[in-house]
Amino acid sequence: MDEINNKYNLLNRIKSKYVLKKIFDNLQKRKILNIIRYNKNMQERLDIDLNNYIESQQIEIEIIPCSMRKKGKKNFIIISNKEDEPFCHIYFNDNNTEIKKNYIFKKDNVSKIKIILDYKFSSFSKLFNGRKIIKEINFIKFDERIIKDMSYMFCDCSSLQKINFSKFKTNNVTNMEGMFENCSLIKKIDLSGLDTSNVINMSQMFNSCSSLKELNLSNLNNTNVTDMSYMFKNCLLLKELNLSNFKTDNVINMSQMFYNCSSLKELNLSNFNTNNVKDMGWMFYKCSSLKKLNISNFNTNNVKDMKGMFCGCSFLKELNLSNFKTNNVKDMSQMFCICSSLKELNLSNLNTNNVTDMSGMFGDCSSLKELNLSNLNTNNVTDMSGMFGDCSSLKELNLSNFNTHNVTDMRFLFSGCSFLKELNLSNFNTNNVKDMGWMFYKCSSLKKLNLSNLNTNNVTDMSGMFGDCSSLKELNLSNFKTHNVTDMNRMFSNCSSLKELNLSNFNTHNVTDMYKMFYNCSSLKRLILSNFNTNIENNMHRMFSLCSEFLKMKIKKKYTTLKEEAFQ
Q1: pLDDT, tens only, 273-285
Q2: Is 125 part of any domain?
Q3: What is the pairing mode between strands 188-190 and 162-164?
Q4: 227 three-state secondary structure
Q5: Is the pLDDT of residue 492 over 90?
Q6: Sheet holding 112-117: strands in order across?
Q7: Is 379 exposed, middle or buried (0-12, 13-18, 19+ CB in 10 A)?
Q8: How confident is the model at residue 121 (pLDDT cuts 50, 70, 90)?
C-alpha cells in the first residue's frame, strides 16, 4: 500500500494529463517508470525506480516513456536525450562518476543496440555491464570530450559478438579496467582506431574473452598505463599476440597479465621496459603451449612478487634468466612449478636474500635432471613446502648451502623425487619446523638419508613422512623428538625394504592418528615401540596391515593393549 501511495504522490506532481497517460501505460507494460533527474547544468541524469522512491527526496522530474523500435526481425533501442525518442534505463550515482545499474530491456529479445549519445557524461563505467542478450553494438555518434571512465563498460556481455568502434573517440579516457571482461563469445576486437594516450588503467581489459582469436592492438598507446594486471587473462584461444608497439615504462603491475593464455605458442616481450614493475606474480601461468619466451630485456630490479610467474609453462624447454635481478623479491613460491619440459635451469645470478616463500618453487619440474642451487640464499625463507615436489628426474641434489633456521613448513619438500638415491640434510636446521608431513613421500629410489641433525621438537605433523620410500633399507631416527606430534598416519607405509626400525625414543602421547603407519612394511622383522602409548583413543586402523605374520605375532604379544583393527 505504501508503495502505491508513493507512486501516486509522485504522479500528482506532474500536471500534464498526456504524460500521466503515458506513465500509466508504461506502468502497465513495464511495471517500472523511467524517471530522469537533471542538475542545474542539465548534464546529470539519473533513473529512479518508483519501487525505491523516497517521498522526502527533492527532485525535479520529467517522464520519458520507454518503447521498442523494430526494423525487420531485429530489435533496436535508441538511447537519446531527446524527449521524443525512447530512452534506456541507466542508473548513475549522484556524483555522475559511475553507472550503478542499467536496464536495456533485459526480458525482451534485444540483440542489437544502435546508440546515439550526444549528452555529456563523465563516465560510462558498467554502461552495458551484465547485458547478456546483446549480440552487436554499433556506435554511430559519440561525444568524446567528457568521457573519462570506461571501466567494465561491456563486462559480462556474454552474447556480444561484434562492436563497431569506427566513430568511437576516447582521447580523454583514463580508465579501461575490465572493459571487455567476460565477453566470452567475441572472436575479434579491433582497437586500432582508439586513442588510448591518456589511459592509466588497462587491468583485466580482455580478461576471460575466452573465444577471442584476433586482437589488433597495433595502434594502442599505453605510454601512461600503470596497471596491466590480468590484461589478457583466460584468453584461451589467442594463438599470437603482437605487442611490439607496447610502451610499458610506467607499468607497476603485470601480475597475471598472460594468465592461462593456453594457446599462445610464442611471446616476444623484448621491447618491454619493466623498470618500474613491482608485481609479476602468475604473469605467464598456464601458458601451456608457449615454446618461446623472449624476456631478455626484462629489468626486475623493483619486482617484489614472482609467485607462480612461469608456473604451468609446460612446453617451455629453455628459459634464460641471465638478466634477472631479484634482490627485492620476497615471494618465489611456485615460480617454475609444472615447467615439465625444462631440462636445465641456470639460477646462478638469482639473488634470493629477501625471499621468504619458496614453496612449490620447482614443483612438477619433471624433466629437470640437475639443479645448481649453490647461490641460492635461503636465510629468510619460512616456507619450503613442496619446493622440489615431483622433480622425478632429479638424480642428485646438493643442499649443503641451505640455511633453514627460519623455515616452519617442510611438508612435501622432496615428495615424488623418485630418482634421488641419496640425500644429505645434515646441515638442515629445523628448530622452527612444524610440518614435515609427506616430506620424503614417494622417494622410491632413496637408499641413503642423513637426518642426524634434524630437530623435530616443534613438529606436529609427520603423516606420510617416509611413505613409499621403498628402497630405504635403514633409517636412523634416534634424534627424533615427537612429543608434539599429533599425526603419524602412513608415516612408514610401503617402506618395503626396511628390515629394522627402532622407535624407542618416540613419544606418542599426543598422537591421534596412526592409520596405516607401518602398512606394507613387508620386510620389517624388528620393530621397537617401547615408549609408544597405545592406550589412548586414536586411529590405529590397519596400522600393521600387510606386515609379515611373524612381526604381527611379536607385536601382539608385547603390546597387548593394541586393538585388533591395527592388524587387519
Answers
A1: 999 999 999 999 9
A2: no
A3: unpaired
A4: strand
A5: yes
A6: 78-79, 112-117, 136-142, 162-164
A7: middle
A8: low
> For residue 405, is it within any domain?
no
Q: Is the pLDDT of residue 168 over 90?
A: no
- Contact call for residues 518 and 540 (beta carbons, < 8 A): no
pLDDT band, residue 113 (cuts 50/70/90): low
CA distance 392 to 477: 25
d(CA 215, CA 213) in angstroms, rounded, equals 7
Instruction: Report the C-alpha gap between 231 and 246 in whole angstroms.
Output: 13
- Range of the structural domain that residue 53 is part of: 1-65
As a whole number of angstroms, the distance between CA 308 and CA 86 comes to 51
d(CA 99, CA 49): 14
DSSP classification of residue 51? G
Each residue of 105-141: b (16+ CB within 10 Å) or e? beeeebbebbbebeeebbbbbbbbbebebbbebebee
Identity at 548, one-letter amino acid code: S
How does strand 112-117 pair with strand 136-142? parallel
**Number of domains comprising the chain:** 1
What are the cell numbers at 79?
538511447
Residue with cell 645470478: 349
Angle at 467 between CA 465 and CA 473, to 5 degrees: 105
φ, ψ (nearest 5 deg) of residue 556: -60, -40
Whether 25 is covered by a domain: the verdict is: yes
Torsion, Cα of 349, 353, 359, 365 (10° steps): 10
Measured distance CA(309)–CA(287) in Å, rounded: 10
Q: What is the mean pLDDT of the chain?
A: 81
497, part of any domain: no
DSSP 139-187: EEEE-TTT--B-TTTTTT-TT--EEE-TT---TT--B-TTTTTT-TT--
Side chain identity, residue 67 = S
Supply the pLDDT for residue 552: 86
CA distance 32 to 63: 12
Q: What is the pTM of this model?
A: 0.81
pLDDT tens, residue by residue, 188-220:
998 887 889 999 999 999 999 999 999 989 888
pLDDT of residue 385: 98
